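Task card 7
Instruction: Convert sequence to structure tokens.
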Amino acid sequence: MSSSSSSRPSLLNRIARVLLCLVFINAVIGKVGGFADTAGAIAAKGLPLASALVVASMLLMAAGSALVISGWRSRLGAVLLLIFLIPTTLLFHGNAGDAAERIQLLKNLSIMAGLLLVIEQDDA
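Output:
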């Protein structure tokens, strides 16, 4: 749909990539300020090494977002974000019977769809 033959993404594409990643950027900032609370929520799910998992999630979200937004290695960035988002969705938002959790589940599925579009779009 691009009217240009260059490999640079359109302005609309670049805006979409920023909007797609805002939730991850916000989450990284929240995890910095609420590290102990996030680690506690992870530990409450019975997962080991909660603090290490928080750090890993922050790295996945920060690196993935930077790659998707920059347009350089966007496919890798989208995969990194999916590596974070899929287990997080299953562990924390899998209760579709709860209305609030269903909203979070559907939001995450929508974000996954956007990331899959980034993967498909970036053939290089």
